[in-house]
Hints:
Blueprint: H1 3-19, H2 22-26, H3 41-45, E1 75-82, E2 88-98, E3 102-119, E4 125-143, E5 148-161, E6 164-179, E7 184-198, E8 210-218, E9 224-230, H4 238-241, H5 250-255, E10 258-266, E11 271-278, H6 279-285, E12 291-299, E13 302-309, E14 317-325, H7 337-342
Antiparallel strand pairs: 1-2, 1-14, 2-3, 3-4, 4-5, 5-6, 6-7, 7-8, 8-9, 9-10, 10-11, 11-12, 12-13, 13-14
Amino acid sequence: MSFRKLSLHIALPILLFALSLTSYAQGGKNIFDFLNLPTSSHAMALGGKNISLIEDDASLIFQNPSLMSSVSDKTLGLNFLTYMQGSKAGSISYVQAHRERGTWASMVQFVGYGNIPETDSEGNILGTAGALDMNAAFGYSYLLSDRWVGGATGKFLYSNYAGYSSIGLAVDLGLNYFNEDKDFSFSVVAANLGGQVSAFGDIAESLPMDLQLGISKGIGRLPLRLHLMFYDMFHWSNDYYSASGEKTSGFKIFMNHINLGADLTLYQGRFWLGMGYNFRRGNDLKGAAGLTVGAGINIKRIKVGMAYGNYHSGAPTLSFNIAYSFEKNKEKNSKSSKTNTDNTSIQ
């Protein structure tokens, strides 16, 4: 079967299934919005979202399950995020090769909001209450050919606010095409497909379902890659982007779906610098809030990354990543020999 026919057989069911949920995702209030927080310093540095970045980075699998095949066998990844004052956010992931063409991963993402004052209807403080969001997930990716990888992740979602809890189940579906010779990567992801098993009250809320398209392209022999991503493609109405009912231009609504990034990979991939811009955050938080920057380094089997951005008006957000590969060399199921070379540890 040709690559073109193979891509149609895989991509079309994902797109049709995701598009069938568009009407459901358009309306109502979302729950489990913490799933949109960054778990990768590299992706955050490129604007906050990236599903087509081919790197030996375990934290990227939260954004696209098909990227598991680019990660070294037996890799443990940790992420810490400074989000809001008093809160603690982070994630942990473990990736391992499975036979010749498969890769599986387990992962956990959490946001703890600390102790929040509990008040009555008159504003009297009754005490404090905790708040927690959590995502426990398991994923699998498979090399469909030399250039195509498909992947899926199942998620168990849990939120507890002051003793009131909600449980949800969701699935991410991802597909990636990578042409090493042209240094070109294309991905499509249908994220957070699912719903609540139990709600906080009588009314169920929708998950932050998302259809995403991403492209990454190296520029000739330069150590430079450019990244373009379209996301939040279920939402195009004016009401979604303007709570006050104020008219939002069609151009602004279109730009709210775009995330741009660029990164330099230096010293044979041992060091990277990244910069990006997210138009939605820039429009919502004003000024340079959409701008993100970051850097990372690979030392032997250890990889460290850090990124800076703005995800709310209170304070800047910092992301820290560290990963360790227990295997010296990548397994043969890695989808990119170029990734193997570029991520060779310092000897």
